[in-house]
Amino acid sequence: MQYNRPPxxxxxxxxxxxxxxxxxxxxFTEASDALGEGELxxxxxxxLFESVGALEIMDPKMDSGxxxxxxxxxxxxxxxxxxxxxxxxxxxxxxxxxEMAWHxxxxxxxxxxxxxxxxxxxxxxxxxxxxxxxxxKSNKPAKDVSIDDVCFRADCETDQAGTxxxxxxxxxLVLRAYCLGLLKCCELTIRIITSQMYHEEEDFVSQTxxxxxxxxxxxxxxxxxxxxxxxxxxxxxxxGIPPPFMCVKRLWRFFGRCKSFDNDKEExxxxxxxxxxxxxxxxxxxxVRVALKDRLFIRQDFLDTLETxxxxxxxxxxxxxxxxxDLRRFASDxxxxxxxxxxxxxxxxxxxxxxxxxxxxxxxIVKLTYREAQRDFDQMLESIGEACQLYELPKTxxxxxxxxxxxxxxxxxxxxxxxxAIMQTTLFTEGQVCGRLDFPFERLLRxxxxxxxxxxxxxxxxxxxxxxxxxxxxxRLRQLLDDFIKAAxxxxxxxxxxxxxxxxxxxxxxxxxxxxxxxxxxxxxSIDRKVxxxxxxxxxxxxxxxxxxxxxxxxxxxHHKHDMIQWVLQLGFEHDIYEPNELGIMYGVLSQVxxxxxxxxxxxxxxxxxxxxxxxxxxxxxxxVCGVSCExxxxxxxxxxxTSSLTGMLKILYGLLDSLGIVPxxxxxxxxxxxxxxxxxxxxxxxxxxxxxxxxxNDGLRPDRGSADDNFQNWIAxxxxxxxxxxxxxxxxxDEPVFRSSKEQWKKHDQLLLETARQISxxxxxxxxxxxxxxxxxxxxxxxxxxxxxxxPPPGTHRIHDxxxxxxxxxxxxxxxxxxxxxxx
Length: 825
Known about the structure:
- The chain has helices at residues 11-14, 25-33, 48-53, 85-103, 116-137, 165-194, 219-234, 245-254, 264-281, 286-307, 321-335, 370-388, 400-411, 417-428, 441-454, 462-466, 473-498, 503-535, 552-574, 583-614, 621-659, 673-681, 694-699, 708-731, 743-774, 812-824; strands at residues 706-707, 778-779, 788-791, 808-811.
- By secondary structure, it is mostly helical.
- The strands form 2 sheets. The protein has a two-stranded antiparallel ribbon.
- The longest helix has 39 residues, at 621-659.
- The two termini are 25 Å apart.
């Protein structure tokens, strides 16, 4: 968003001046554009003091108190001024749009706090809080907090004398109820988000700027007030006195509408007669009444479901998936309706910011369109429903890796901060998984160990679990396993916690957690050696073998560490961190990590199968556990092999493009490819047994010299083989326990991989034909530069999958045609 600086009247300044002045904006912009990236020109005499002194105090961008001639400090909008029903609908919709902008990470100061109605309510609440503090200091009894005290108060009550009863009800009952519910929703949202791991200003702005969002008011009280307004909107003249009668009576007396009556019965009869007339004449069409009811219903339902999501709340009911689904369905129906609101622009103003104590300059109002807000609200409700759906999924104890896959599928949609906080609440509340009292997080860790490496191992055998004396080997084994669980608990917990952050933070957090797993791996190796000493007869004990994959704890840590290294590299492709000419070598790194992961998986599966074969009782629980572990390792091995083949083909494709001289070069003029590579890999070097040497990877990137026809035939055959492997994984998803809780998400994921593999095959076929047209018969002895252009699609455009970037390859003539078409359109 840009500020348009208001024109200044410089006529008086120049009237008696002989100075020649010229506008240098264009010349300055052209000169700055000529500078390359990373270049800086600075006058040695221009210090920080001069740069700060150059800021103009009378600039409205920096000076919130600056007033134009004739401008007032605050807008004189009367919150109790009469509004039509259509105008109330519009104000509600605008508040909803600002609320969704706040959920996207903008501050309250530039979204909801720009509402004059909300500011009026918050000001009353601030005044009440100040009076309560003064009463506390003077040892006076505090006044009971009531929602009736939080109401719209006009600057001039005489304006209410001519207001019709219908307008009083629409403003002081309907709109006020909506605003109170909105403020309470914001307060509950802040409580949910701040109770979990998030990043202030990056994910969400929880600052309320010294305003209390009705934290002292009970949610039930506000919920009941909204229900009163909803029932009044649903009442008709034939239904007698609407339910919120006492509320209307208080409003009636507050605005001086009631004359003196002989008794309460006479007063009640008069108000009832007015209300019957009011409910019949307030709405010009039934659509307006329905629109107001729908918006109040969504607000009260959203408020209720938020309240039940807070673990420390008395109303906490975690398994509310149905409520979130119903709310989403109803909100979608309302969002598809035709907008009938009548704008009241004066109800929102940037000047409201002047009421708040802030050391920041004025912020521009951030606003979404109604359709954008509805779309974001629908996505947020969908994500919250998926987070709460963990309560309804098959028992997590069936497969720990299934839960990890589900959380990854959830994070893959880049949900908003509130759904991610609710996902953390679902996973980690009081150290319990999915709110189950019988499922502490430590148990999830033990299940993960059992599924991957410990099935049939003495560490979890029945004699070990039943051992009670310290001299028993099983007792010592159990102690060793407990020691490892204590050491692994925190990094394992952080791994799940990291997946509940925003996409950029996931990559950064995982980079740190990889280091913790690397340290844990050394401890795991030490414990494995002790276990080996206890479980192996003295005559068979020897030195620590070079192939230590049969040592389970060390292998388990290595498995998860390789997983996270892959995620870090793949998120780098997603976030467009690597330059186009770096993609080949980075896919080479990923291919190397995946090959090590596949090798580790095969060896883990090998030793699990050996233990499975050694179990004598076919029907024993131990044999069943070993069988599940064998199936799981087989599924993972099949998936690792397929993705490794896909990555290898992308590495070959970029290497081929480089050998043909058509890979886009870096636009950065400083640094070198090797220095950039060292910087990329700095956090990962030393964390794996593999070494990532730039020269070795770069030399292995280019394909071997040889016949072009033979090479293309081999490459196309390899990608067809990868397609078959991916197809096999895709077809077996529904039957495997690892995908049980996220079957649909992973089917979609693997479908994208299949389409990516087909796209890679198309690129090889295109390049084969281009080489034939150019007369290139030997790879490495010709170039397609000037004949073929390569375009790396940016994120969110023509990428099938953000982790596997397939470049667009086309003849130079076609590229020019596309560019000309863009310019003409």
